[in-house]
Design goal:
heterotrimer, A alpha+beta (268), B alpha+beta (164), C alpha+beta (787), A: alpha+beta, Uridine Diphospho-n-acetylenolpyruvylglucosamine Reductase, domain 2, 5-stranded antiparallel beta sheet, globular, B: 164 residues, alpha+beta, Ubiquitin-like (UB roll), DNA polymerase, domain 1, 37% helix
């Protein structure tokens, strides 16, 4: 790890000020992506602004038709939240599938969405649930927030404070893990809303998380696995690596989508 | 240098550390608590698992400064008055270890599993919950048996569990 | 059997420290004034080094020294060696290229050692390493095993066509004749995938120099500290043997990868004297992936000939073995004498011929990894046998049974004389435990759920108890493979056993103590096992090749016999009886036909006070040593049956059942033996389903972390059903055959045979990842299961 200056603000405002003053600063949330990257010297920020003591960034709240999760809320807290389990069980299940128990005890939703790793799980939930990403400056619709691999709508120094998920009528997440890393090789989040169905895919796309309009339309007409028959995502837009080439990933998108729909439909 | 104060195995500790010091380095090098091991650099093997405020975490992926004001328990801190923790005894009784290197992390994870999932654990639950711990020696067969037995023993020894 | 004697599942003595975090591994040691080493490694697979400018690094904060291959050469430090000479078919010796501990003029794989920075802290050493300027002339690289001999790239000047040797074993003419009269010939092409051993403890070394006594100490993660000392002194020339102490304390797994003498430990000892500071290096996992010796990496074409009665009459094998960029310590023996002599398997095959071409490539050195050669041989034999049975339309279990060797001793056409075994007994027991008779029912039940079920067999044999010194010497080994032991009885009657075996997970502190307890009749707590320190133990060849029981314990047994013999003399003096009348039984030395007796502890005390010794005929003390050199290899064998269920939609293979029935001869501690079987199976399943080291064409290791190299996790494995049969080994005093490698040898073909059975065709390579299995399932045009 390269040397860095360490800051531990206790409010969002203080964190934002620090980011404004420091050269080449990075926010440290759960640290489970950033610290390994820094350990391997693949990242070397001059300053690290630890959000761990910012109390206002934590917590889960149900208000009316949405679940709002503070950015520094850990995956284990989302997985274990009675409110989340009651309102959007698929979101709790997704959180339970991230990494391993130790990662879930440290990793945060804010860190995950701000990083927008193409194989991370939360971006799929955000897109499919039509979430709003709240920052210290504005509210950003998920559709506008995720802009390709490791790229988001966030400005320099902008801090994710909350993610607000509308409560869907039915939803489910089906994940095919990368056997080695346990990230999503393919993860499909399907959500049935009052105004239609949204299907979001992570892990598979060569440009990060994406929606599948054809599946959404078909499921809007008939929310059942067989509605997806004959619908395929284009292979040439899929990622390819030693674990899965684009053809296999494209195939798995179909399989995981059917399994997600099946699970969501079974929610009654 | 940044000052960090925390409680480790019941003892208060304060030190000035380079901010890039990982919690596992702090435990091993500053406190000489070498039972917590390092087996990888990508947060996967789990040899470094300790409890931070009662939850299992990977000490290789936490800065020591992030643990400021926290309570840390390591493998050295779970036996009570010379009596092994029931999970430690179970690993020994069921031959849940061979070279011993992954063992501290396994035991700390196993205790955490019981804390979260209770003492009546089926095989599939244990295997799934060991997601974050790699062992190269045992094939996990006896680790799974040890965790199940340790969990049952923890239920029989509620005082010890509470002390953790 | 007593509660702590031979055959008892004694709980391990060493576990108390391991479960409490009190184990002491190399990285847990810190010496006063210690500095930290960090190795600058080659980012290129193949490059000439035009120059190295260490200047900018030397002035970085905390830097103690920056050293390169030039410094090594100037100090006359020799290169790393390969200790087993293999001759090609034409009689020429293998082509061993230079292997300096720090590169001299050229780098040959990504991770090759270019320079070392020694600094006050590891972070400072890493910072400074980035300031070293290396001018590389990047050269084209060759990584592909099958292509290496044809490549225009030449890894070593001494090795045209990148060929280390073209070796062969067996009888070509007889084998050709067998194929000429065969009714059926089965052909197979196999790749034995390259593996990274990945013991969870990474390698580490801590070198220290004492100028007052001109002595060196090396703490290192070694399976064989004496061999390390011998090589470091006699061949590399870092320090004289009598001035170098090598300590291998608790070692966190080895699986072969910690047998070898590596660049890093060499440099730490040498540098410690140069900088007059203890120098510590601890590998991180990324370095381990790059620079630990890898395993396997064979490309093989093999053919099996059968006659009209379904009997195997011939086997011919051609293998290309990738040895990487340099010859590691025992690399040459692995694809030769640890491989081809096992090609007869458990079968009576009258004619076998095997050719092995070993090649250099721009990849990490390849050497022994759990099983070492024997898993590769077993994969060839057991895949071919299974395929032959299928092609002949025969039940794979019965085809095996028909071809089993049943008379012992049995001389194979490939060196080995099998001493004993009962292969059919293991098969019968395994079939029973696996509930083979109801397999078809289970297969149908799986099909109803849209899943493909398959069953696969592996009837493996291995040659363990490595090894008779004369035999291995005649085959090119640079060392003898005996073992030594010393039994020190203290005046209080407690016993220390100093053994040349080394435990890095095997539980020697318990099993060896069980033997002592059993023989001397003393409590197991009165026995200490001392190992892993060249200043304490006289000499030893270490632990690998499932040799610690068969060879290491046999040496202890011999020394114990001597202790008892001496004890009888002592007792005779004390009891004023004739030595010939003294009997040792149940821990007591007694005079036959009387009730006069002395306990073991009393005899020990009398031996040391020597008050009752008359004359000069008896020396005081009770300490005996022994060297044991085996007269034959041992031949553990067994049957493993794997049952899988495949989801054709995703290609995920789930191992539903695993049955293992092994014959390890006499078992000292069944709990520990079963644990060894479990661990071996997991590594074999890892090879078959999950693990594979992949280099890209440029020589970059793509699978360089646990993020890409898939290690077996708990969820990937079932619980194993383990059974035993016993035919005692006749060639060692304890009847032990060895158990450490069996699972890793047996498992890969069992898994692949099960998958090919499920898929209905043979076209699947290891690792059979979900993607590979899905594609193979597509190819087989299996009906897609309904969702």
């Amino acid at each position: 790890m390269y040397a860095f200056d360490y800051h531990r603000p206790t409010s969002v405002k203080e964190a934002a000020n620090l980011a404004g003053q420091a050269e080449d600063a990075k926010f440290l949330a759960g640290g489970h992506t950033l610290l390994p990257t820094m350990k391997l010297r693949l990242a070397g920020p001059a300053s690290l602004i630890d959000l761990g003591q910012v109390a206002e960034l934590r917590g889960i709240e149900r208000s009316g038709d949405a679940i709002t999760v503070g950015a520094m809320t850990k995956h284990a807290e989302v997985a274990g939240s009675a409110d989340v389990r009651a309102a959007i069980p698929a979101l709790a299940e997704l959180a339970e599938l991230i990494g391993d128990p130790h990662v879930r005890n440290r990793g945060t939703i804010g860190g995950s969405v701000a990083n927008n790793d193409p194989a991370a799980d939360y971006p799929a939930a955000c897109l499919a649930l039509n979430a709003t990403i709240v920052t210290d400056k504005r509210r950003i619709a998920a559709d506008d927030f995720f802009q390709g691999i490791f790229t988001t709508a966030l400005d320099e120094g902008e801090i994710v404070t909350q993610v607000s998920f509308p409560i869907a009528a039915k939803a489910a997440y089906a994940k095919f893990r990368n056997p080695a890393s346990r990230y999503a090789l393919v993860g499909v989040f399907v959500a049935k809303h009052a105004d239609g169905v949204r299907v979001a895919v992570t892990g598979a796309g060569s440009n990060g998380v994406f929606r599948v309009p054809e599946m959404e339309e078909a499921l809007g007409r008939n929310f059942a696995p067989e509605a997806l028959d004959g619908i395929a995502v284009p292979e040439d837009e899929m990622n390819s690596d030693i674990h899965a080439d684009s053809a296999y990933r494209a195939h798995l998108v179909g399989v995981m989508a059917r399994r997600a729909v099946e699970a969501a439909a079974a929610r009654g | 240098m940044t000052t960090v104060s925390l409680t480790v195995n019941g003892q208060s500790v304060t030190a000035d550390v380079d901010p890039r010091t990982l919690l596992v380095q702090f435990l091993r090098e500053n406190l000489r608590l070498t039972g917590t091991h390092v087996g990888c650099d990508t947060s996967q093997c789990g040899a470094c698992v300790v409890h931070l405020n009662g939850q299992a975490v990977k000490a290789c992926t936490i800065l020591a400064v992030q643990a400021d004001a926290s309570v840390v328990t390591t493998i050295e801190g779970i036996a009570e008055g010379g009596e092994l923790h029931p999970m430690q005894s179970a690993f020994r009784e069921h031959h849940g270890l061979q070279c011993g290197y992954c063992t501290p992390g396994m035991i700390m994870s196993a205790i955490d599993i019981v804390n979260r999932k209770g003492s009546d654990l089926d095989e599939q639950t244990i295997r799934a919950e060991l997601e974050g711990n790699l062992c190269r020696c045992t094939g996990y067969h006896n680790i799974v048996k040890a965790v199940a037995a340790g969990a049952r023993a923890m239920a029989r020894a509620p005082l010890q569990q509470a002390a953790e | 059997m007593t509660a702590t004697g031979i055959g008892a599942p004694v709980r391990r003595k060493e576990d108390q420290r391991f479960v409490t975090g009190q184990g002491r591994y190399v990285d847990d040691f810190n010496r006063p004034g210690q500095a930290f080493a960090y190795f600058l490694r080659s980012p290129h697979a193949h490059a000439a080094i035009r120059s190295i400018d260490t200047g900018p690094a030397t002035i970085m904060p905390g830097v103690v020294a920056v050293l390169t291959g030039d410094n090594l050469a100037a100090d006359g430090i020799g290169g790393l060696i390969c200790g087993w000479m293999i001759h090609s078919k034409d009689g020429s010796p293998m082509k061993a290229g230079p292997h300096p501990a720090l590169a001299q003029g050229k780098v040959r794989y990504v991770g090759d050692h270019v320079a070392v920075v020694i600094a006050e802290t590891l972070a400072q050493a890493k910072d400074a390493a980035e300031a070293i300027v290396v001018d590389y002339e990047v050269l084209p690289a060759i990584v592909d095993t099958a292509e290496a001999a044809k490549a225009s790239v030449q890894v070593h000047d001494v090795a045209p066509d990148n060929t280390v040797f073209n070796w062969h074993l067996g009888n070509r003419e007889e084998t050709e004749a067998a194929f000429a009269r065969a009714r059926h010939v089965t052909r197979i092409d196999l790749v034995n995938n390259r593996l990274v051993p990945n013991p969870i403890e990474p390698r580490a070394a801590l070198g220290e120099y004492d100028p007052g006594t001109d002595t060196y100490t090396l703490y290192t993660t070694s399976q064989n500290p004496h061999v390390a000392r011998l090589v470091l002194s006699a061949f590399i020339g870092v320090a004289p043997e009598h001035k170098l102490r090598v300590i291998a304390p608790d070692v966190g797994g080895g699986f072969g990868s910690k047998i070898f003498i590596y660049a890093e430990e060499t440099v730490c000892v040498w540098a410690a004297k140069k900088v007059r500071r203890p120098v510590k290096w601890t590998s991180d996992r990324s370095e381990a992936f790059l620079a630990d010796a890898h395993g396997r990496d064979h490309v093989t074409h093999a053919e099996m000939a059968t006659d009209e009665n379904g009997r195997i009459i011939g086997l011919r094998v051609h293998t290309t073995a990738n040895l990487g960029a340099y010859l590691s310590t025992f690399a040459s023996s692995v694809p030769t004498y640890l491989y081809a002599p096992l090609l007869s398997g458990q079968y009576d095959i009258p004619a076998i011929y095997c050719e092995v071409d070993a090649v250099y490539t721009n990849t990490a050195p390849v050497d022994a990894y759990r099983g070492a050669g024997r898993p590769e041989a077993t994969f060839v034999v057991e895949r071919l046998v299974e395929k032959t049975a299928r092609e002949l339309g025969q039940d794979p279990a019965e085809f095996r049974r028909r071809n089993y060797i049943t008379q012992f001793p049995h001389q194979t056409p490939v060196i080995m004389t099998y001493d004993t075994g009962d292969y059919a007994a293991s098969l019968d027991k395994a079939l029973d435990l696996a509930d083979y008779r109801n397999f078809q029912q289970r297969k149908q039940e799986s099909a109803r759920r849209g899943k493909l079920r398959g069953i696969g067999f592996s009837s493996y044999i291995e040659a363990c108890g490595i090894a008779p010194s004369q035999a291995v010497g005649s085959l090119g080994a640079g060392v003898g493979l005996w073992e030594s032991a010393e039994v020190r009885v203290n005046p209080t009657g407690s016993v220390e056993v100093l053994t040349g075996s080394h435990s890095h997970g095997q539980g020697h502190e318990t099993t060896f103590a069980q033997l002592v307890s059993d023989r001397l009749g003393i409590p197991i707590d009165q026995v200490s096992i001392v190992h892993g320190d060249t200043d304490k133990v006289q000499f030893g060849m270490g632990t690998y090749g499932s040799r610690s029981g068969a060879v290491g314990m046999s040496a202890i047994a011999k020394a114990l016999d001597k202790v008892i013999a001496k004890g009888k003399k002592v007792a005779a003096h004390v009891l004023e009886a004739s030595e010939g009348d003294i009997e040792f039984k149940d821990g007591k030395f007694g005079v036959a036909g009387t009730d006069k007796a002395l306990g073991f502890g009393e005899v020990a005390l009398q031996a040391y006070i020597a008050h009752k010794f008359s004359g000069q005929d008896l020396e005081p003390g009770l300490k005996e040593g022994a060297f044991y050199d085996p007269t034959n290899f041992t031949f553990p064998a067994g049957v493993h049956i794997c049952e899988v269920e495949i989801d054709p939609d995703t290609g995920v293979t789930r191992i539903d059942r695993w049955t293992a029935v092994d014959d390890f001869g006499v078992i000292i501690n069944p709990m520990i033996v079963e644990g060894q079987v479990h661990g071996g199976i997991a590594q074999g399943v890892g090879q078959a389903l999950l693990e594979g080291a992949v280099y890209d064409q440029g020589g970059q290791l793509v699978t360089a972390s646990f993020n890409d190299y898939c290690m077996p996790r708990a969820i990937d494995l079932p619980s194993f059903q383990v059974g035993m049969t016993v035919t005692p080994c006749p060639s060692n005093p304890l009847g032990i055959k060895g158990c450490g490698e069996a699972g890793a040898i047996a498992a890969p073909p069992a898994v692949i045979n099960a998958i090919t059975d499920a898929l209905g065709h043979e076209d699947i390579a290891m690792p059979a990842t979900p993607q590979a299995v899905w594609r193979a399932a597509q190819k087989a045009r299996m009906p897609m299961a309904a969702e």
